[in-house]
Automatic annotation (TrEMBL):
It comes from Diploptera punctata. It comes from the Eukaryota. Signal peptide: none annotated. This is Laminin G domain-containing protein. Gene3D superfamilies: 2.60.120.200. It holds the Pfam family Laminin_G_2. Residues 1-170 form the Laminin G domain.
Amino acid sequence: MVYAQQSEGFFNGSSYVRLYSSISLQGHTGLSFRTCVGGELFSQTNGPNKISLEVRNDGLLFSVKINEESFDTQLNVRLLDNTWHLVNLLYRLGNLTLSVHGHSKIVANSTYNSEILRYPELSSGNSVLIVGRDFHGCLLEGPSLVFNVSTVQSHNVEWGRCLLSTSSCCTTKSLTVVIF
């Protein structure tokens, strides 16, 4: 079933969405997620350059790779608890900040990791933006990551209300993955 407005989707670990837009590190990007096992929330590549955000056992990892140089920002917050979490990447007053539930960390500004903000190829029109690759859980669109039918190509995403059980965390049955 295709929804005209498909703002929430279930990702089974092999699902993903390709957006026909790109995110800018000098703007506002956000989304909400619910998971027990995590994975990559989004990645944007342009040649050898990459921006990615991943939820892991030890928190959120935001990574930027420019040519051969990597810049990582880790927010050490437990998020694999099957509750909705809103994560924001926001550029305001010269600071790029990663935040979730009252926890935040500066990713870059004019004196810290400034290369990230000065490299235009990270957000050019040639970028490929993928949401939910290797992610098991539910994602809800947010600023700069809009799941509109005309702006996405989805693969194995179950659109509609989250299919995860509402128990405190996922059970083994809900995480069954078939490996070929």
